Amino acid sequence: MADRSVPSPTLALAARVLHTEAVAVEGLIGRLDTRFERAVGLLARCRGRVIVTGMGKSGLICRKIAATLASTGTPAFFLHPADALHGDLGVVTADDVVLALSHGGETPEVVRLSEVVKRLGATLVAMTGTPHSTLAQVADVHLDCGIDEEACPLNLAPTASTTAALALGDALAMVLATEKGFGADDFAHRHPGGSLGKKLMRVAQLMHAGDQLPRVDEGALLRDVIYEMSRKGLGMTCVVDADGRLAGIVTDGDLRRLMMREGDVTARTAREIMTAHPVTITGDLLAAQALQIMEARRITSVPVLDAAHRPTGVLHLHDLWQTELF
Asked: How many alpha carbons fall within 13 Å on the CB side of residue 139?
């Protein structure tokens, strides 16, 4: 029987890779200094776009960094250095900041592009693992993301170095987003699709409003209450007073319990059978927060009120299911 206290060669190698990459990222912390602050300042003051560029594996990391910057409030895109040198340099202007990645700092296409970038008057921020490299020396600001070793057993394949570069790029993006005051609303506007956007949707975007809002007056007879609930199909209706403010709600459950208890209730009014002081929410509440409230209170529908306590809509649990919040 195998000794489970001794890791297999497979698990031992996997653990070594993860440890090496974790050490590479942690090593960046001690190198954060005024150069990082200068880089953040240049990116924050950029009047154009942030253009991220790199070859090979670094280029793949550049695509991720550009996407993260763009999604968190900093206009950015990836430019392949070879394409730039063969006609795509027209996208670079003097108002742009070019963020160039090259672990060795001597990648021919990136070095050549950096020289042209400087001639165009754009600002150059370089991320390399070699502070004395050509790219580091020509840059306006150089960020050192060097590592002691790659996680590759041969110490050849870019592994720890690309992880470190990605982490440093994330640090730049997050600091920039914070300094720009980028918040949940901004994030929602830039992520209208997918699960992230759906979680950041507001109740007002999902609720049943206008003609879909079930609503009766306090004096409405039971038959009118049932008709309104059946017509709107939400299993409930709001009950409003003479000024249009919410007085209570009537649900399917309320009706069933009342009929079981009293039998003939056709002469009852909405005021007599409603539940006063129900749970309510506002239209600016996040859909995810509304879901938490409804789950905690075990309710399937909730009135949405404006500042004057008037119902503007009803949010149903099915509306949240459709947003894939589960």
From this structure: 30
